[in-house]
Each structure stands twice: as C-alpha cells, then as structure tokens.
Amino acid sequence: MRLALWAALAAWLLVLDDAPARAQEGEEPVAPYVQSDANAGATPIDDPAVLAAFNGRDGINRIVDRTVDLSLEDPQLGPIFQPFDMVRLRRTLKEQFCYLLGGGCTYTGRDMSASHADMGVQTRDFNLLVQHLRTAMREEGVSNRMQNRFLAVLAPMHRDVVQR
Description:
- This protein has helices at 2-16, 18-22, 48-53, 56-73, 78-81, 86-100, 112-116, 123-139, 144-154, 158-161.
- It is mostly helical.
- Mean pLDDT is 78; it is low at 1-21.
C-alpha cells in the first residue's frame, strides 16, 4: 500500500517537474498538466538555415515580443489577449517558436486546444495574429521564403485554435 502511494506521488511530481523550474518571475500559477514537446502542435523544422534566418534565439525573442505587443495594441486582438498572463504567454510562445524552428528549446506550455479553449477565437482573429507575426518577422529581416516555411508549420494549428 505504501509503495503504491509513493508511486502515485512520484508520478504526480513528474507532471509538475518542469513547471516551477521554468516559470519566470511574475508568472501566475497554473493548474498542473502533462508537459511535452508534442504540445507545441507540430514537428520542428530540421534545417539550421531556417533558425539562422530568424537570427537564432535572440531573433525569436524579439519576434515574439513584437508580435505580442502588436496584438495587445490591436483593437480587435487586444481584448482577447489582455485577460491572460503576459509573462507566461511570452515565455511559452518563445519556447514554442524556438522548438519549432529547431533552436533546441523545450516547450513547456499546454497543447493548442487546451491553451485556446473557451477563448472564442475566430478565423479573422487568427489571420490578424498571423499578420502581426509577419510584421514582426519582416522587421527582424526574415525573408518571405523563410517566413512561409515557418507559417506552413503553424497553419495546421488553426483547427485547434479557432473555435467559431
């Protein structure tokens, strides 16, 4: 009986293992969930030239920050984004982009369906976010060809993000 209890406790702790270690100062606590790179929603691009075109992790960080800033300033998207923990959003989006671009990062966020549940995201919201992402990538100097390679990885997530 004790062994079963210890095994159950150990399994539960494995689920929580990365959450506190990866959280940044200012993040709000979240309910436990299973963390996996599979939650990132796609298979990473295995081409170092793509990561280089995004200027590595530093470029990814700038792209994410600019995309989030543009979205918060947007009269249509701002109200969707504002209720959420921006520290966590920025961190997990940076992890996701870095993972998908082959930057060697681990994605610790929820899967796309769970992350966007009950948000009421519409196709026009999704498209507007992509427009802001394109602006951020262009400002970072990412070529259209490399932007399109990344967007092709992100596009299938539409079905998990858009709810109406």
